[in-house]
């Protein structure tokens, strides 16, 4: 990384709010909050577990992105924590369906195929909260499972790109050293 004209060496970082994976994480959190409060009993530890896993995923994307300005290692670690939180949440939704003998939709299921197509639209992103209110518990669980799988996939890809960037640019200490060497050459 070259020293910028203004003399700074810290990498520029876009806002986590613009990341598609963060926007998906917000939806997963909102849907989970709605689901847990509508379908689980008050006082059930699963309510807190599910909401906290969804929150942890969302928050760690934001925190990792912001920490990435000075620590590639922290950014990668927190992004992986986000992925792990969503994978934990995925198990809760699968457990809910299994113990209640509700159907977890497979890739052959026409409802899942239609849902996957709809989830990729701007219409869904803008209007997901009204959709959720019209769904039953089986549909919300399958919606959440699909959203979580998509979010985990995006997080895996993000981690891969962060690792590649680290290999190409190094960490903050290497960037600081290069900036100092460039400054001395002037």
Notable characteristics:
single chain, 186 residues, mainly alpha, 7 helices, 75% helix, 0% strand
> Strand tally, please?
0
Order of helices and strands: HHHHHHH
Helix/strand class: mainly alpha
- Runs in which pLDDT lies below 50 for 5 or more consecutive residues are 1-6
Query: What do the pLDDT scores average to?
Result: 88
Overall 3D shape = elongated
The domain tally reads 1
Strand fraction: under 5%
Main sheet overview = none
Query: How helix-rich are the residues, as a percent range?
Result: over 70%
What is the CA-CA span between the terminal residues?
A: 17 Å
Count of individual helical segments: 7
Explain this structure to me?
With 186 residues, this protein is an all-alpha fold. The chain has one domain. The chain contains 7 helices and no strands. Helix 1 runs parallel beside helix 5 and helix 1 packs antiparallel against helix 6. The chain is elongated.
Give a quick precis of the structure.
This protein is mainly alpha-helical and 186 residues long. 75% of the residues lie in helices and 0% in strands. The protein is built from 7 helices and no strands.
Task: Summarize the topology.
Blueprint lengths: L19 H20 L5 H23 L4 H28 L10 H10 L2 H12 L3 H33 L2 H14 L1
Helix pairs in contact: 1-2, 1-5, 1-6, 2-3, 3-6, 4-6
């Amino acid at each position: 990384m070259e020293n910028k004209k203004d003399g700074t060496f810290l990498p520029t970082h876009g806002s986590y709010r613009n990341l598609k994976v963060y926007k998906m994480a917000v939806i997963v959190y909102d849907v989970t909050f709605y689901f847990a409060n509508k379908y689980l009993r008050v006082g059930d530890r699963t309510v807190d577990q599910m909401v906290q896993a969804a929150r942890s995923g969302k928050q760690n994307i934001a925190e990792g992105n912001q920490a990435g300005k000075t620590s590639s290692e922290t950014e990668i670690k927190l992004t992986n924590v986000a992925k792990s939180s969503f994978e934990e949440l995925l198990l809760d939704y699968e457990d809910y369906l299994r113990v209640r003998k509700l159907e977890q939709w497979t890739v052959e299921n026409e409802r899942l195929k239609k849902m996957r197509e709809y989830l990729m639209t701007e219409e869904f992103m803008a209007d997901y909260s009204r959709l959720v209110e019209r769904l039953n518990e089986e549909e919300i669980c399958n919606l959440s499972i699909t959203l979580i799988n998509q979010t985990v996939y995006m997080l895996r890809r993000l981690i891969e790109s962060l690792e590649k960037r680290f290999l190409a640019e190094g960490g903050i200490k290497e960037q600081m050293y290069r900036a100092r060497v460039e400054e001395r050459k002037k």
